[in-house]
Write a structure and sequence with these properties.
With 98 residues, the chain is α+β, with helices and mostly antiparallel strands. The chain contains 2 helices and 4 strands. Helix 1 packs across helix 2.
Length: 98
């Protein structure tokens, strides 16, 4: 598997979201990531496996895209789509970041 690294930022529509690895999330409820649309940040918990970090990043990115496009996605939808995106990325050897 190609090494996956989180990008420093990602552009979604007219907004650029900073991507940050954090030690814990605000109001941590067993989550691995969060998208803060007001601060334009995607936060991912440190210490995740590469696969889990990829799935979590894809999940939070889907929230950002949905917000920008005015689409309502349920958590389950984001979970399933993110797992599918991660699988395609891994199976095809795609890399992100530097």
């Amino acid at each position: 598997m190609a090494r996956f690294r989180l990008p420093a930022s990602v552009k979604v529509g007219s907004l650029t979201y900073a991507v940050k690895v954090v030690t814990r999330l605000d109001e941590d409820k067993g989550r691995w990531g969060e998208a803060d649309h007001r601060a334009c940040e995607i936060r991912i918990c440190e210490g995740l496996s590469e696969r889990r970090a990829l799935e979590t990043f894809a999940h939070e990115l889907l929230h950002c895209i949905a917000e920008e496009r005015g689409i309502r996605l349920k958590e389950h939808d984001c979970d399933q789509l993110a797992a599918g995106i991660a699988a395609v990325a891994v199976d095809n050897g795609w890399r992100m970041g530097t």
